Amino acid sequence: MRTEEIDVLVSEVGPRDGLQSVDRTMPTELKFRWVDALAGAGLREIEVGSFVSPKRLPQMADTGQVVAHARGIEGLNVLALVPNLRGAQDAVAAGAQALTMPISASRAHSLANIGKTPEEAIREVSRVAGFLASRDEPVSLEVGVSTAFGCTIQGPVPEDEVLEIARACAEAGADSVGLSDTTGSANPAQVRRMFTALRRELGERAGGAHLHNTRGQGLANVVAALDAGVRTLDSSQAGLGGCPYAPGASGNIVTEDLVYLLESMGLRTGVDLEALIEAREIIREGLPGEPLYGHVPDAGVHNGFVYAGSQEVTR
Amino acid sequence: MRTEEIDVLVSEVGPRDGLQSVDRTMPTELKFRWVDALAGAGLREIEVGSFVSPKRLPQMADTGQVVAHARGIEGLNVLALVPNLRGAQDAVAAGAQALTMPISASRAHSLANIGKTPEEAIREVSRVAGFLASRDEPVSLEVGVSTAFGCTIQGPVPEDEVLEIARACAEAGADSVGLSDTTGSANPAQVRRMFTALRRELGERAGGAHLHNTRGQGLANVVAALDAGVRTLDSSQAGLGGCPYAPGASGNIVTEDLVYLLESMGLRTGVDLEALIEAREIIREGLPGEPLYGHVPDAGVHNGFVYAGSQEVTR
């Protein structure tokens, strides 16, 4: 699978966004097996953990080990979340190939989430970009602008402020800047408008969409993002996770349902749905009783479903 | 609300499609209250029941009474499903203002569902249209082409056959012909393509979209339908219902989540979400223990949500 061409990159965030949102810790050995299974199902990029204080998020304390393990998987892009320079140094030391930094467009959310204003957070992006530039081996830096479509604390976030922050992050040295619907407030008209504007502003540096399904609108927003040219979409197996610091917000879009959507539309993901659905067993084993979301795992694919590129039946 | 302009007609099918899919019967008095509450929340059109044999669907035996009751609600378009001429006669006698007839594009589904081939079903459309034309008071006739996006029994349904059936129904005298994703097989690329073709073929007589959420793709398909110019969307409160004769298929799109989607996008529905969500209590009372679906009823609207047309904040 790994060498086939794909049309859309499904970036799996479950091992980071999912596992940091539950109040138990999945044993390291099971994280290894889960990452193996996700990559084995054909996912090309996995956000495997977060380099934050283990006091704050003990679920992520073994991220260095998970990165090192994931680096052993051929063809996988191993992504880690870092909040600051220190986290970036740890991530690079562990072997991460790409770093993602969250920057809140909402001042209130930024302070609540990382204790910094957006301006301070952008200065940290500069520091991390400088550090990465000083090294021989290339490590890419992605920024995700969170609360880009609204905030549970401050309410609407002005769209020009979101775009201004995205521009500032690109100028600070981020290789790509995506937009996150952290609080599940986005609607398709807004998603289309914002990603169109982002691409106009940043061109090739316009990043992917991180969408939530809090209000059942996740895949509707995916359709709008695709229309706006987005070709990288974050999702979480079984819909695990969300943002623990945005009260009332929960629910990443479900990787299983997203892959089905894309393949049905004729967009190749490289993912095998059956193998992907099997990987849910590892969550059941590692986090017994945790609710697992998704419609396709229950309903199965439809009669006549074919993977994108296989034939033209459903296209 | 009733006199305000709207951009999209949300056609509520719960009292028909929802109630015929559960194996209990909601008491007539509660059906009255539910229809009252739905109309009170601002819905302009409700499919209140089905004029079929009470032996086959005892849940629908009181449809005549429900139609008569609903006719007392000012400004409401009272729609009833009819399988044939006899049902149409009963529906008109009861006071229905619009009739909807299902025609399966899939031959296998048509035989399983109504015991007729598609050609026989189209002849029945002619008979019903002739009957309606012979009367003084206008009653409109809508046809919904079911299994238009695939069939659980026969698999893919050729798109040109679907369009051919739609054309034949319009020629037979249907005022509008819509497309139904009876089995939850549709994807947004297909929905966009099919409704674009339908409008090209039928112009003003191209009808609405009846979409299911079987695989979590319901609102994603709504976005595609809107793009293709569709302005009438069927949905069911709490996602009640689906097609009982298509094995494995279930789950109408949820009216609450649909209204939220449309209003968030700036498309006026005339529906008050709070009043709509309150109406769920009547289902709880009438069908205790029945699973109620929908994300917006649990999550609420987002901080900063405004109804379409109120202001520009989220648009």
From TrEMBL, chains A, B:
Molecular function per GO: hydroxymethylglutaryl-CoA lyase activity; metal ion binding
Pfam family, one: HMGL-like
Keyword Lyase recorded: yes
Keywords: Lyase, Metal-binding
CDD domains: DRE_TIM_HMGL (cd07938)
Listed InterPro entries: Aldolase_TIM, HMGL, PYR_CT
Gene Ontology annotations of biological process type: ketone body biosynthetic process; L-leucine catabolic process
Recorded family membership: Belongs to the HMG-CoA lyase family.
Protein name: Hydroxymethylglutaryl-CoA lyase
Organism: Kocuria coralli
